[in-house]
Design a protein that fits this description.
heterodimer, A: alpha/beta, D-Maltodextrin-Binding Protein, domain 2, three-stranded mixed β-sheet, 15 helices, 12 strands, about 45% helix, about 15% strand, B: about 300 residues, mainly alpha, 12 helices, globular
Chain lengths: ~400, ~300
């Protein structure tokens, strides 16, 4: 039974991504070690069988890699980064076969609460911990130390729309704000026409589509509108949609589904989930910019950041005027404590954060989850934060 | 032996119920006693609603929940009764048993499947019907336009609820109607009543209390239904009767499911408070239903 469980575990671990080859190699190794043991103990058939079972099962950690990380490690939090975390888990466990990691994408708030309560080793969150939460953590799970917070997942948010025959729509942030606030209701409104002189805009009602659930994407989108429209967008940044205009969908896929379903709709979504929908080029400075991974990563790199020790919190500069940036970006963090109850957990957290922010892991996530890889200079800053983990 | 077994079962049910109430109440306390500023600070959807306390926040949700469930019953109950009468009195036994098992099968379909079907099939096809309703019956507040496009509105939710509860109510109604004493129907027929008259005189009064219980069971499912609301409805927060407009309604269960994942600790507490409200509502409705069910039986006994 032990063996069976081990094999199944490895299968599950390697089954993610294109690690099937790894799994095959590993199975051969399993079989070989089994044969060796079988020879050794061939005198007494039954006892040898039992021995093989226990040997192959338990020697698993020694043969797989040089790493000494083993055990169960739990994280929870933002669902935005969960598909990236899946990729990273597979990659990390390929290097540390006896470490098993779980991630419950229950949401940012839930993850931060779990971290403060000490229920998990690391938390994923779309917004940085508040000072209040940091204080709670320092009196709770992180007693004797502080909180480490690093950006691990950067993703551009695209404004998507469904309008036959109109491609490459260009909009200024002010127009976007007016559309989503119900001030512009027709596609052939003079303001949209002025920004798209070449497009044949129909006399059709605009249906803005937002998220019906509380989400980090909404928070970043409304933050962008609040900061770039000089008061035209009256609502503050909020994870929950502030008005009753238009329609809404549950989750990113629900929103995309609504936009796809009927013509004349416009919405916002994580760029990796856009699919075949057309996307809006938004005005940055005096140019219109389509979303891009590079533009998103560049903005995070050049934005100011909080300097308190261990906490690398980016204050996104959405008001940039250089078209090399794409200012509609979501940054998701992972947070953990600087001190841990045992060295095993601390070792794990250090190597986990180092791995997921590595070039290799970030590129993998970009391929599989559609995120923007973090740049070298961001990595340098993250390294400093990770070093504070004792 | 039997006495002990039934006694313990009864006690287990009552303690479970009591524990649920206690759990909900304890978890709800932080949100009930939190200041308005704290609620607005920590819960974005509460801040957006502009409400002053958590009870005020719950009432529009409660209103929408009841509205959706009532509309669903309005569609489902007459249809179910008709189907049940048809199956028990108008169709040969063999066909009715085949239909009966098909209906039981429908009752077992999980709500998420109905939700998917509604999103993919029903919603795109309803806009024509809804536009017709709004154009011709727009003077009724219920059908006030403009119709949302796509129609992710409360009436769609109610229709899906109706589809979900029809099998439940029909299955029970079939069972009830088939137990009408044959003597009663035959006596009516012997007195010269037509088939429909005999059904009206003997079957319908006999089944009345049973149908009410069946409807309550359906109502219970409609009140607590979550997945379908989450997938179909474009929610809002108001007391609007316009079930053809989007961004007006949200049910309690749908609201909990939509906001729970990203909720902080106070947010979870606030959601549990709304859950407590829903619990009290179902409790009251079931209590009233019991009263209604008991009434006609008593008068019958007296006649004897």
């Amino acid at each position: 039974m032990v063996c069976y469980n081990e094999i199944m575990k490895n299968y599950v671990d390697y089954g993610v991504g294109d690690s099937d080859k790894e799994f095959a190699k590993k199975s051969v190794r399993f079989a070989k070690s089994g044969l060796k043991s079988l020879k050794l103990f061939s005198l007494v058939a039954i006892s040898s069988f039992v021995a093989v079972a226990s040997l192959t099962g338990c020697s698993n950690g020694d043969q797989s890699s040089s790493s000494s990380l083993s055990g169960q490690f739990a994280g929870s939090g933002a669902s935005s980064q969960s598909s990236a975390v899946d990729v990273w888990r597979a990659g990390f466990q390929a290097k540390n076969a006896s470490a098993s990691i779980t991630y419950d994408g229950k949401g940012s708030g839930g993850g931060r609460k779990d971290l403060i309560d000490g229920a998990v080793l690391f938390a994923g969150t779309d917004v940085a911990l508040t000072d209040d939460e940091v204080k709670k953590a320092e009196n709770g799970a992180c007693k004797g130390g502080g909180v480490v917070e690093v950006p691990v997942y950067i993703s551009p948010i695209a404004i998507v729309y469904n309008l036959d025959d109109v491609k490459d729509l260009k909009l200024t942030p002010v127009t976007v704000a007016k559309i989503f606030d119900g001030a512009i209701t027709k596609w052939n409104d003079a303001e949209i026409k002025a920004e798209n002189p070449d497009a044949s805009l129909p006399d059709k009602a605009i249906t803005p589509v937002h998220r019906s659930d509380q989400s980090g994407t909404t928070e970043n989108f409304t933050d962008y509108l609040a900061k770039t429209t000089d008061g035209i967008w009256k609502h503050p940044a909020s994870g929950s949609w502030p008005n009753n205009v238009g329609q809404s969908g549950q989750g990113t896929s629900g929103l995309i589904n609504v936009v796809q379903q009927s013509s004349g709709t416009i919405g916002y979504a994580d760029a990796s989930k856009v699919g075949k929908l057309s996307t809006v080029a938004i005005k940055v400075g005096d140019k219109f910019v389509k979303y891009s991974a590079e533009g998103a990563a560049k903005l995070v790199e050049d934005s100011p950041y909080g300097s308190s020790e261990g906490r690398y919190v980016v204050e996104l500069n959405r008001k940039v005027t250089d078209p090399k940036y794409y200012p509609l970006v979501l940054v998701s963090y992972q947070a953990t404590c600087t001190v841990h109850k045992d060295s095993k957990s601390a070792d794990f957290v250090r190597s986990w954060l180092t791995y997921i922010t590595s070039d290799e892991a970030q590129k993998k996530a970009a391929e599989e989850a559609g995120s923007a890889p973090i740049s070298e200079s961001i990595r340098e800053r993250i390294k400093k934060s990770i070093e504070t983990i004792k | 032996m039997l006495k002990i077994a039934s006694k313990t079962s009864g006690i287990i049910i009552l303690t479970t119920l009591a524990l649920v109430v206690i759990f909900l109440s304890i978890e709800a306390v932080p949100a009930i006693f939190a200041s308005q500023d704290a609620l607005r600070d920590q819960i974005p959807w509460f801040a957006n609603s502009g409400d002053h306390n958590i009870w005020q926040y719950s009432i529009p949700l409660l209103f929408s929940t009841i509205l959706a469930a009532l509309l669903a019953l309005l569609i489902a109950v007459p249809l179910s009764i008709a189907v049940a009468l048809f199956l028990t009195y108008y169709v040969p036994k063999r066909i009715s048993s085949v239909f009966g098992s098909l209906i039981d099968l429908l009752a077992a379909i999980p709500s998420v499947v109905y939700g998917l079907w509604a999103v993919a099939v029903l919603v795109p096809r309803l806009s024509g019907v809804f536009n017709f309703l709004s154009r011709n019956f727009g003077w009724i507040p219920l059908f006030h336009g403009p119709v949302a496009e796509p129609p992710r509105v409360l009436l769609t939710v109610s229709i899906v609820f109706a589809v979900m509860v029809i099998p439940i109510i029909t299955a029970l109604a079939c069972e009830i109607y088939s137990q009408t004493p044959h003597l009663n129907t035959e006596a009516a027929l012997a007195l010269g009543a037509t088939k429909w008259e005999s059904i009206r005189l003997s079957v319908l009064p006999f089944g009345k209390s049973g149908i009410i219980s069946a409807s309550m069971l359906g109502l219970g499912r409609a009140l607590g239904e979550t997945m379908a609301v989450l997938m179909i409805l474009s929610p809002g927060h108001s007391f609007s009767l316009s079930v053809l407009m989007s961004g007006q309604h949200q049910t309690i269960a749908g609201n909990i499911a939509a906001n729970f994942p990203e909720a902080g600790s106070l947010g979870v507490s606030a959601l549990i408070t709304t859950g407590l409200v829903l619990f009290l509502l179902t409790f009251i409705i079931n209590f009233l239903a019991r009263k209604v069910v008991d009434l006609p039986l008593k008068t019958k006994r007296r006649k004897k």
